[in-house]
Design goal:
The protein is of the alpha/beta class. It has two domains: 128 residues; 126 residues, no CATH class. It contains twelve helices and seven strands. Helix 2 packs across helix 3, helix 2 crosses helix 5 and helix 5 runs antiparallel to helix 6.
Length: 270
């Protein structure tokens, strides 16, 4: 049990990141524990967070959580999402400023609020400096390349959904834009921790070269009518030698239509 408890402590430390925000949160909890008299507000801002913290560090609760999540213990930190740390800090700050204002006057109230604001600013990081952030290319906040490809291959209104294959770096975004475009593999294949095996993905994910003949054997068996090849890999043969039609090349990604697979779909429907 002690080992499970210490694992929870490590998870909490990693979740905390910059320790200043956790310090502000704990100080806010202590302040409200002694100063907040309203029962409903105490339930929201004191009792509920304390209960969730207790459960988070309680080893038996963690064992039950992991069992219910089918062994997905790496998501245990999400329990902390239930604690509105930012709201609690803000409310405690306003309560403190109100108390100071009643005793010391307006100038002291603004001094407290200014100090708290500065502390909150320094407790975080400038999010737009992250390597994972980039300027939005469109209203969907998705790569424009994905939108252009999806618009190119998407079925018309009233038509059946189509099957497609996308390179690994694009699969995260396709379903966010158009659910009428089905993929032979998705995010579950590109997350190493899940250890799924998909033959089509194995061919598409080859480090240097795509075996077109082997790829088409698999995609045609599954009635896949559109194939988007990676922009940075070679192919064993020209895809058009196997009957594929190049619709367009979008930002370096060749987009092919497979008439043979499309005919198989029509025969199956009839």
């Amino acid at each position: 049990m002690y080992g499970i408890f210490m694992e929870s402590v490590v998870i909490f430390k990693n979740y905390a990141g910059n320790r200043l925000v956790i310090a502000l949160f704990l100080l806010s909890l202590i302040f409200l524990l002694f100063k907040e008299k309203d029962k409903r507000r105490r339930a929201i801002f004191v009792y509920t967070p304390l209960t969730l913290l207790f459960l988070f560090f309680f080893p038996i609760f963690r064992k039950i959580f992991v069992r219910l999540m089918s062994g997905e213990g790496d998501t245990y930190y999400r329990v902390l999402w239930l604690i509105p740390m930012g709201v609690i800090i803000a409310y405690a700050g306003v309560r403190l400023a109100g108390m100071v204002y009643a005793k010391k006057g307006k100038w002291m109230k603004w001094a407290v609020l200014t100090a708290l604001s500065i502390a909150i600013v320094f407790s975080g990081k400038y999010v737009y400096a992250s390597q994972y952030m980039s300027k939005a290319e469109n209203l969907y906040h998705l790569p424009q390349t994905v939108i252009d490809i999806c618009d190119l291959i998407a079925p018309e209104d009233g038509e059946e959904r189509i099957w497609s294959v996308f390179p690994t770096d694009l699969v995260y975004f396709v379903r966010q834009y158009d659910t009428d475009i089905q993929m032979l593999y998705g995010r579950e294949m590109v997350e190493p921790k899940w250890q799924y095996a998909e033959p089509v993905h194995s061919i598409m994910n080859h480090p240097t070269t795509i075996d077109i003949e082997e790829l088409l054997k698999l995609t045609r068996e599954r009635y896949c009518t559109y194939i988007v090849l990676p922009s940075n890999k070679d192919v064993t043969e020209d895809p058009e030698n196997f009957g594929l039609k190049l619709l367009d090349t979008v930002d370096g990604y060749p987009v092919y239509y497979d008439p043979i697979a499309a005919d198989a779909v029509l025969q199956m429907q009839n």
